[in-house]
Amino acid sequence: MTRSWSREVVVLGGGLSGLRAASVAAAEGASVTLLEKQDRLGGSSELSAGMYWTAPDLASYRRRIPHGDMRLAGLVIQAYEAGLAEIRASGVHVDAEATPGIMGFGRGYSFDVKSYLKILESRLLRSNGEVRTGVRIRSVASSGPRRFRLEVESTGTRQEIHTDAIILATGGFQASPAQRAAHMPEVGAGILLRSNRGSEGDGLSLAVSLGAAFAGDLGTFYGHLVPHPVANFTPDRFMLYSQYYSNHGILVAADGRRISDESRGDEILNQDLAEVDGMTAFLIFDEEVRSTYGVSEPFANFGRVDRFAFAVEAGARHAKAETLGELVQQLDALGVDAAQLTKTLAGDVEVSSLARRVSRGQPPTVRQLEKLRRQPFYALEVQPAITFTLGGIAVDDSTAVLNSAGERIEGVYAVGADLGGLSNYGYTGGLAPAHITGSVAGRTAARFVSEAHIRPAQRPVADAIKEGETSC
To answer: For a tag on the chain, would you pick the N or C end, based on fewer CB atoms within 10 A?
Structure first.
């Protein structure tokens, strides 16, 4: 016996993109159920700094992300202001002034993302939508024209949901070692997870089972360098450990050579280091960097913290010296090739032989060495960490999932970190694209089921289960 029920729209994933999509679809009149595999809503959005940001214009986007999807970029940039206005209208705190130069090029505003997530949940429930946590999706299949059957499991019980539209908002595949091995083989298997642990590629797998195509480079991801080794790497410390200022120093592998051009940003270096044998390197910088960028707020309202001191206290390997020569001697004792490091500091820009892939990155420059000028000098061992993947499911500008022929798979949508190609090695924001694509998908899915004139009488899932409604 298998319990069975029907809804017009089912949203998979309870982060910002999923909650936004579900609340919008419900407000548009669709009967909606949101399913979350973890025991609480929020996903990685709840762990974020709460910065609503993206590229300010298409020219800036193209320069930063030359291989990104211009259609999706245009969608996000055009809808940015409207999305911001909707967040402000909800009543949550949003900074009055924009934060300039986010990730070196973006525009954005800090807002209370945790409160906003609760507001979206309340809106969904007020519109007769449903939320169920602790639910795992086992499979999805077409069960007829414009109809899908989801097999789910909750508290050990298998159940079926029949639906007209599915919105995939499961947050990427970074938490799945198997998915990472399949889609990003150049990235070390032991990379540190800097996100929620529920994003295991469920959306990607379900989309592929329905014939979806991939989009973007599945080997790319967003994250930041963190100390090595690191103790108590818990969500409340993710941002405290992140070395956002790494673009103001040089990054040197164990062979004494640099990996790539550090000036492009920490989120880029993070990806480069993930493709280096051992996935560790030493970030070298001077006192001017430590006392300015190293203690500055990476985002508005975050607060100041001495990131080097915080990392050292947590047990990270490090060095400090009055001269670069003395620093080399200390790093020699920590396993770095001293002879080659001396050459590197003198201007040798040959890429480290430990890098498994260098074609995507840009080679080191002598200019970056000019930033090492004020004593004392510091070295901090760092490692990469992954927050969410950037490659994913192919969609059109209505967020409808596409097959390999570029055709829509009717009734299936992907949002947030599940869709691929908006960010691609370069990064153009998480919360703003999640909110915007969620809005688009919610409206599109509601319109889809409305145009199909599918309006069966619905009862809440909880009522159906309570009354023992089943299908054999």
So the answer is: C
